[in-house]
Amino acid sequence: MDILNKKVGVLGGGQLGRMLFESAHRLNIDLTIVDPQTDSPAKQLSNQKHIDKDFKDREAIFELSKRVNVITAEIEHVDTKALTEIVERQMIQNEISKSNLRDGKEHYANHEDHTMVLPSPKTIQVIQDKYIQHKVLKEKGVKVAEFEYCQDYSNAVEIGSRFSYPLLLKARRNAYDGRGNVFVNSENELRDAWDKLSSNIIPSPDNSVEDSGIYAEKLVKFTKELAVIVVKGIDDQIICYPVVETVQSNNICNLVLAPAPVNGITCEKAEELACLAVKAITSVPNTISIELNNGEKKDIDVVSKCAGVFGVELFLLENGEIIVNEIAPRPHNSGHYTIEACDTSQYENHLRSILGLPLGSTKLKVNYAAMINILGLPTSVCGSTDGMGLIKSIVNDTLLVPGSTVHMYGKKEAKVARKMGHVTVVANSPVEMNRRIQAIMHIVSGENHLANNSEKISKILCGSDETVYRPYKPIPLVGIIMGSDSDLPVMKSAADQLKSFGVPFELTIVSAHRTPERMVEYAKTAKKRGLKVIIAGAGGAAHLPGMVAALTSLPVIGVPVKGRCLDGVDSLYSIVQMPRGIPVATVAINNADNAGLLAVRILGGTFDLYSDRMLGYLDKIRLEVEGKIEKLDSVGYENY
Amino acid sequence: MDILNKKVGVLGGGQLGRMLFESAHRLNIDLTIVDPQTDSPAKQLSNQKHIDKDFKDREAIFELSKRVNVITAEIEHVDTKALTEIVERQMIQNEISKSNLRDGKEHYANHEDHTMVLPSPKTIQVIQDKYIQHKVLKEKGVKVAEFEYCQDYSNAVEIGSRFSYPLLLKARRNAYDGRGNVFVNSENELRDAWDKLSSNIIPSPDNSVEDSGIYAEKLVKFTKELAVIVVKGIDDQIICYPVVETVQSNNICNLVLAPAPVNGITCEKAEELACLAVKAITSVPNTISIELNNGEKKDIDVVSKCAGVFGVELFLLENGEIIVNEIAPRPHNSGHYTIEACDTSQYENHLRSILGLPLGSTKLKVNYAAMINILGLPTSVCGSTDGMGLIKSIVNDTLLVPGSTVHMYGKKEAKVARKMGHVTVVANSPVEMNRRIQAIMHIVSGENHLANNSEKISKILCGSDETVYRPYKPIPLVGIIMGSDSDLPVMKSAADQLKSFGVPFELTIVSAHRTPERMVEYAKTAKKRGLKVIIAGAGGAAHLPGMVAALTSLPVIGVPVKGRCLDGVDSLYSIVQMPRGIPVATVAINNADNAGLLAVRILGGTFDLYSDRMLGYLDKIRLEVEGKIEKLDSVGYENY
Asked: Which parts of the sequence belong to the ATP-grasp domain (chains A, B) (predicted)?
C-alpha cells in the first residue's frame, strides 16, 4: 500500500493536533481527529469529517481503528487498554489467517495489514505511570532522580526520613504542567501533602492491584532545565533535535531557547541521554500468548514496532551531571520552535516516523530561536479588558517584533494560564535574540497592554547593550587565551573591544609550555563548546597561537606580545611564520585591539549585526581624525 | 474595530489561497473563500462555510462583501467592475450619511466603516490589462521593454518593421504562464501569429471601445530572469523581499533561487526598481464625482488606499540593465520560498498589509533556499503509473533530501503541467544547496521514478565537487587580489586551496599604487557584492592589504610576497604592523596556501561544510606525515 495513501487517526484535537494538521496538509495526508469538541483547535483546520467523541471513549477508538491505518495521540492520557486490544485482536487475526492458509506457504503478517498504534500502547502505558516510567529508565541505565513507591502514608514517612527533606511527593498518573506534584519541606508538611494528593488520585486502570498512586522523589538541585525532542523511526533509527533550555514559571514552560545556551559538550551529553531514554522506553517487551485454530500455541511480540516523536525533559545538575525528568510520547511544547527554526518540524517528523517515511533533518537552520507561550492572564492583569481582548492586543504587539511568528490555537476563551498560542522568534545574533526575547516576554506578560505604551517595545528592541543578556546569557563566541597573566595588560584590549561590540567571549590562561595538556584540551573542544574564533597572545618563542591552530579547525588570531628583548620581533616571527597547512592570522606586535577587531570582522560574516557595527566603528574613527584636523586647523600646529 | 477581529474574503481558492489560509489560521484570522469547487485546495484547510460560486460571479462578490471587512484576491482575473462598485457604493453611502449629520460635526469616514478591497480594484484593473500596465509603468519612469498597441493587423505589420524581428505579440488580457504570448521570428510568421492570438482574445470588459486586444513588444536579450516580492502597507510603507532568480521552462517557473546568484549591487538595483514599479502601479488616480443630498458636488478618491503583496518579474539584460517584465497583484510563485526561508512569509505579510497590521521582517533567515514546482507529468514520463501515483512517488523521494519541505496542494488529479505542489529546500552552504537542487530537479522530472533507483539520489547528495555548480553558479565568497600579475605564481596557491574546498571565489589584479581608484571601488563594494573574506597579496611597500582593510568591514588576509631584496621582511612588516583600528590577518611570507586555508577556517563559522572539510584536511596532512614516518622506518634514513 502506498505510504502517502495511508490514513492517520489522532486521539485528541488540541493545539498539538492542530500543528500536526499543518504538516499533514502539506503532505496531503488524511487525518481524522477524535475529540468531543466539534470546533476543537485541530478540527478547525479541515473540512473533513472527524469523530466528535471523547478520545478516551472506547467505542470512538474502535470506530477510528476502522477508518484509519495508523492511530497516534497528541496527549498521553489515552485509553491504552482499548488501544492494546486493537493491536492484539488484529495480530491474533493475522496469525489465525496465516495458520489457516491451505497452500502451506507462510504468509508473513504485513504491518500494513492492520491498524497500527504508534507509539505502541505499551510505551504510552509505561509513560502514563510516572513511577513505572522511572523504574524502566533506571533499569535500562538511564539516570533519573532517586525515587521510591509509597505503599501508604507510614511508608512515605519512612521513605522521607531516608530521602531527607525537602522532597517531592508525586502522583503516578494523570499529572501534567505541575499538577500532581507536591513539594514537601519537612515531615510536618507530609501529612497534608499526602492527603491532598491522595484525594485526587484516580484509581489504577488495573483494579486488581491495591495502589496508593503515589511515589516519592528526592529533590535534585538543578541549574537549568533542558529538553530534547527525539524521533524514533519505525525501523529503530533514532535521531534528535538540538537540546534546548526550557525556563518554567509556575510549572508551565514559558520560554524555550534554541540552541540551549550551554556549552556544546553538555549538549552532546544531553542529546545522547535523551536518545538512550527513548530507546529504553520504546523497547519494553510485550508478548502475548495465543492458541491458534490448529491447537498450536504461539507467542507474539505486539510491540516490536514503536515510532513517533518524544519530548524528553532533563535536569542539568550543579555538578554538570544530566538526568531525565520525564518523557512525553508525542510532540512537545519545547519543540514548537522547530516549525520555524529547523529543517523539518517535530510535527512533520512525527508523521514521517509513524508512516515509515524517511525521517527529516533535525538541524537548526537559523542561528538563534526562542519560543514563548501566550497564556490566558488573570483579571488583575487584564484590567477592564476581557481575556480574549487582551490576548488579541498581545498578538498585535508581538507582530512589531522582527523575526516573530505567532501561532494562535483558535481557542474561544482565555482562561487563566491556558495555553492560547505561542510565539517563535528567530534572530541572527545573540544581541538581537536577547532583545527580541525581552520584548516578547514584556508583551505576553500583559504589561505593555496595561501601560498602553508601544514606544516601550521599540525601546527594548533598540536597547543599549547594557540591558543585553538579561533573560539569557549566550555562550561565548570568542575565546581569548594567553600564555601567562603577564600578557593580560596587553591582551585585555581585545576583551574591551569585544565587549564594546556586544560579542560574548571568554578569557583565560592557557600556556603551551607550562600547561600543554590543557592547551590540547582547550583547542580540541573549542569548536564543540561553541567558539567561532580564538585569539591567542604569546611572547618570545610564542608557540601558543600556532599550536592551538594545529589542534582546531577554527580561525586563530595570534597577537605577538613584546618581550624584554628583540622588541617583539621574536614573537612576531614565531607566530606568523607558520608552515604550509596551518595558518595563524597574525596582527601587529602588542596590538590586541586589532585582534579583537579582526574577530568582530570574522564574526560579521555570520552575524550581520557585528558587520553593521564594524561599519559604524570605521565611521567613528574617521570622525575622530576629522575632529583632530579641525582642532589642528583652528588652534594651529604650534598650539596643538 | 479590533484589527484581529476583521474578517477577510478571498476571491479564488487555489494553492495561493491555501497557503494564505495557513497564515490566517496562525493569527486566528477568519477567511472566507469564493471558489466554485467545494473541495478546492484552500477550502480543504477549514471547517468554516465558504461561498461555492465562481470568483467572477457578480452575486458571489456582493454576497462576500456583506460577510467580510476586507476582500482580496489570490488571482488577478477577477471582476474588477463589481469590486469597484462595492467600493464606490459604500464610499458614496459614507459621504451621504456624513452630509446628513444633524449636529454639524464632521464625521470622518472611517476605513473600517465599509468593506475594503485590497489591492484596490483600480490597481488590479491596471495590472489585468498588460498594455495599460506597461503604459503606466513607462509613464512613471519604470523601465520596461519597448511596446506598442496594435490597432489591427496592418498596424502590427508597420510596428513589426519598426521594431524589427524577432518580436513578441501579446494578448493584453487573460494571459498567464506564457499563454497569450506569441514569439514572431519574421514578418512571414506575423499573419499566423496574429490570427492565432486574435481568435482567443476575450473582448474588453468596456465594450464601447473597439479593441484588438493585442500589443507588440520588442524582444529583449536577458541573461537572467529575476523576481522581487514587494509588500505595500496600507500606510504607503513599501518593503521588499530579497531578489530571487527564477528559472523557467516551457513558460512555467520551475526553479527559484534565493538569494539570486547575482552580485549584490545588481540585487539592490532590482529591489529598488521593483518597489518603484509597485509604487507606480498602486498610485493610479481614481476619483469619482458624486452629488450629495444637499446638492453639493464632491470628488472622492476611491483608491487612496492600496495594500497587499505584489510579485514583480524582472529581466536582467546583457548590459547589466534591469527592466520590469510584469507584475502580479498577489502572492507569487516566486515567493513560496519565503514560508521556510524568511522571517515572515509572503502570505502572512499579505494578510498583515491588507489588515493594516505591522509588516513583518522580510529578511532571509537561512543562507540559501530554492523552490522547485512539482508539476503533473505527461504519460510518456509516467510510464505505467497513473499521474497521481507518480506524484506520490515524487513526494516520497523528495523526503530523502535534507532541508526539503514539501507543499502539496490537495489537487485530486495530476493533469500535465498542472502545479500539484512545490518543494522548498534550504541549505547552509553553496555546495549543499547545489546538490540538493540537483537531487530534487532529478526527482520532480520523474526520471528517478522511472529508473526506480533510490541510490541515484544519495549519489547526487554526496556527489563529488566536480558536479557542483551545474544548475547554478553561486556568487564568490572570497576575493583574491594582488598588486601585479608577478604575484600570481605565489597567489595562485590560495586559489587552488579554495577550489579544493569547494569555495566559490574570484581572482583579479588590484594595485594600491597603480589603480588606487579601482582599489577603493573594489574594497567599498566587496561586501555588497557578496564577498565574505578578501585575500590580498603584495610585496615590498605592500600597501594593498592594509588599504583594502581600511575601506571595508570584511576580514582581510594579507600575504607578504617576497621581493628581490630583504627576503620579504619588508612586505611582512608593511602588512602586519597595521595601526590600532584596522587589522590585517597576516600569514607567513609567500604562504598563500595558508591564506586560502585561513579563509576556509573563517567561512567555516558560517558554512558548516567548510569547517567539516577543514577537519578532514587536518586529518589528511597528519596521515601524510604518518606515511613518511612509516617510509622512514622501513627504508632507514640513509636510503630516504
From this structure: 134-355
- Whether residue A576 and residue B572 make contact (CB cut-off 8 A), yes or no, is yes
Answer yes or no: do A402 and B26 touch at CB < 8 A.
Answer: no
The predicted structure's pLDDT at residue B253: 66
Is the Cβ pair A603, B605 closer than 8 Å?
yes
Regarding predicted confidence, which is higher, A241 or B84? Answer: A241
Any idea of the CA torsion for B10, B15, B19, B21, to the nearest 10 degrees? 40
Range of weakest confidence among A77-81, A573-577, B624-628: A77-81
Q: Does B598 touch chain A (CB under 8 A)?
A: yes
Q: Cα dihedral sign for A91, A95, A101, A105?
A: positive
Q: Under a CB-based contact definition with an 8 Å cutoff, are residues B71 and B83 in contact? A: yes
Bridge-based pairing state of the strands A167-171 and A181-184:
antiparallel
pLDDT tens-digit map of B204-253: 666 556 788 999 999 999 999 999 999 999 888 999 999 999 998 776 66
DSSP codes joined into one string, B491-553: HHHHHHHHHHHT--EEEEE--TTTSHHHHHHHHHHHHHHT-SEEEEEEETT--HHHHHHHT-S
Q: B404: which chain A residues are within 8 Å (Cβ-Cβ)?
A: 360
Architecture of domain A478-606: 3-Layer(aba) Sandwich (3.40)
pLDDT tens string B541-572: 999 999 999 999 999 999 999 998 899 999 99
Position with higher pLDDT, B468 vs B500: B500
E strands, A464-526, are: 478-482, 505-509
Min Cα distance A519 → chain B (Å) is 17
Asked if B438 contacts B431 with a C-beta cutoff of 8 angstroms, the reply is no
pTM over 0.90? The answer is: yes
Question: What's CA A537's distance to the chain center, in Å?
Answer: 37
Residue closest to A13 by CA, chosen among B406, A36, A5: A36
Q: Name residues 568-597 of chain A within 8 A of B (Cβ).
A: 572, 576-589, 591, 593-595, 597
Q: Do domains B3-117 and B478-606 have the same CATH topology?
A: yes
Beta carbons of A407 and B26 less than 8 angstroms apart: yes
| A 36-55 → B contacts, CB under 8 A | 39, 43-47
Kindly state whether A279 is in contact with chain B, defined as any CB-CB distance less than 8 angstroms: no
ipTM for this model: 0.93
Residue B344, chain A, CB below 8 Å: the answer is: yes
Domain ranges of chain B: 3-117, 368-462, 478-606
Least confident of A64-78, A435-449, B181-195: A435-449
- CA–CA separation, A83 and A124 (whole Å): 10
Q: Between A447 and A596, whose confidence is greater? A: A596
CB contact under 8 A, A581 and B589: no
From the list B403, B550, B591, which residue is nearest A580 (CB)?
Answer: B591
Closest Cα in chain A to B551: A618
> For the purposes of burial, counting CB atoms within 10 Å of the CB of A207, is it exposed (0-12), middle (13-18) or buried (19 or more)?
exposed
The cell numbers describing B31, all together, are 477567511
Chain A residues close to B343, C-beta within 8 Å = 402-403, 426
- Look at residue A393 and give its three-state secondary structure: helix
CB contact under 8 A, A553 and B615: yes
| pLDDT score recorded for residue B386 | 75
Class for the domain spanning B3-117: alpha beta
| B500 reaches A (C-beta below 8 A) | no
The 10s digit of each residue's pLDDT in A121-163 is 999 999 999 999 999 999 999 999 999 999 999 999 999 999 9
Please name which of A385, A453, A446, A455 lies closest in space to residue B2, comparing C-alpha atoms: A385
Domain B368-462 classification at class level: alpha beta
Nearest to B527 by CA among A611, A269, A148: A611
- Residue A241 DSSP class: P
In this complex, is the C-beta atom of A297 within 8 Å of any C-beta atom belonging to chain B?
A: no
